[in-house]
Specification:
single chain; alpha+beta; twelve-stranded mixed sheet; GLPGLI; signal
């Protein structure tokens, strides 16, 4: 009987240790270089297991859930509440996965219709300072690094057994509780944490193309310069027809039939340029 109790306890401990821990960060951003007074704030998740961690937008997983329910219900895109989706727009379109076993970091982001994935090729070289303080319930220590054209200050805690952090940050002797750049353009602040059963599945519409970081940046610039040509030429592998059938069933501006390619090109270019303007102060400047 005693032996059975020990086995049960061991299985319980194994199950608990195998669980995924979710850390919720508040991300504060000033994405528009010409309008630093406009501050965007949203939550992002850092899900950590012994094998890997994934950082992504809370709004993204909520949007994915709405779309999944719509398609499972047979309604398709036409049954999706557009206002609800609009309220869940995100400035964090990317996801970052860290492979704990191989010590690799992978960045994924959508350009046009495809997902581009690259392995981060720049190491984080931290300078750990002696300065400590308290943030919330955690005793934290200061560290600094230069990354992506910005100087970053991080505060990490050894109270939590994870050498990880939001975005691409990690590699310190504890979990990063707060990290911000010296211009005050970007800040990641730990708000809370809890356990989840497993990693959620992030919808990956389109092809996933594995590229080098330099190639990703080139493709991103091509898309911003001429989005229609980018997609009609494939932008890697994906294809885009210049004559598009507008889906019937409730989309704004949809009425069925073929949409004029010239009008569609103009609208898309205007939309992409407007988005580029709103995101002219990216988290990585180089």
């Amino acid at each position: 009987m005693k032996k059975l109790g020990i086995i049960a306890l061991a299985l319980f401990i194994q199950n608990v240790s195998a669980q995924t821990n979710r850390f919720v960060y508040q991300v504060t951003m000033k994405p528009d270089a010409e309008n630093k007074t406009e501050i965007k704030t949203e939550n992002a998740y850092l899900d950590i297991s012994p094998e890997k961690s994934v950082f992504y937008s809370e709004n993204r997983i909520k949007r994915d859930s709405i779309m999944q329910k719509a398609f499972q219900g047979g309604g398709g895109r036409g049954s999706i509440n557009r206002d609800q989706m609009e309220n869940l727009r995100t400035n964090i379109s990317y996801s970052v996965e860290k492979d704990k076993t191989n010590q690799k970091t992978y960045f994924k982001d959508r350009i046009g219709r495809d997902i581009y994935s690259y392995e981060e090729d720049r190491p984080l070289n931290w300078k750990i300072e002696s300065e400590t303080r308290k943030i919330g319930e955690y005793k934290v220590q200061k560290a600094e690094t230069d990354f992506g054209g910005r100087k970053w200050t991080a505060w990490f805690t050894t109270d939590l057994p994870y050498q990880d952090g939001p975005y691409k940050f990690g590699g310190l002797p504890g979990l990063i509780v707060k990290v911000e750049d010296d211009k005050g353009d970007y800040s990641f602040d730990l708000m809370k944490n809890y356990k989840i059963a497993e990693f959620p599945t992030l919808n990956q519409f389109g092809n996933t193309l594995k590229v080098k970081r330099a190639d990703y940046l080139k493709q991103q610039q091509k898309f911003k310069t001429d989005p229609m040509s980018f997609m009609s030429q494939g932008g890697g592998q994906g294809r885009f027809s210049t004559t598009v059938r507008v889906g019937g069933g409730g989309g704004r501006g949809s009425g069925g039939g073929n949409q004029n390619p010239a009008d569609m090109r103009k609208r898309m270019e205007e939309r992409v340029k407007e988005e580029a303007k709103k995101n002219s102060n990216p988290i990585e400047l180089q």
